[in-house]
Amino acid sequence: MLAKVVANSQKDWPEWVPYVTFCYNATEHSPTGFPPSFIFTSRMPLWTVDLILPKVGEEAGSPAQYVMQTTARLQKAAETVPAFTKKAAEYSSRWYDKSVKPQRFEPGEQVRIFCLRRNKGRTVKWQSFFSRRRSAPL
Known about the structure:
The longest helix is centred in the middle third of the chain and has 37 residues, at 63-99. The chain has 5 helices and 2 strands; from the N terminus they run αααααββ. It is 48% helix and 7% strand.
């Protein structure tokens, strides 16, 4: 998200962090069905337009009513989120499994091993993260 708003020089990224964070936390996430800010606070985030426009149909209640409403909202989110998360995990699993191709290696066959390491003073773009080895006997 930051890549979409920062200047070409990329020197203004710190001033965009609060705005991007707010938008991320105010957007509904598919695994949960709720924005993260709602899950943690039981309230939808207030946008600038919410502060400008008058509140319609909202009555002021007692602190006890507010606590009861907040508790009910959090309870509903706590009951709903695991179902959405499970559904999202199953979808991700099916999507991943479509592209996985099982591999079988014979003892002594040469294989490439991924080893993420960075060598100081070398450009990451030109660095190889694979090493060749013989597979161990079973």
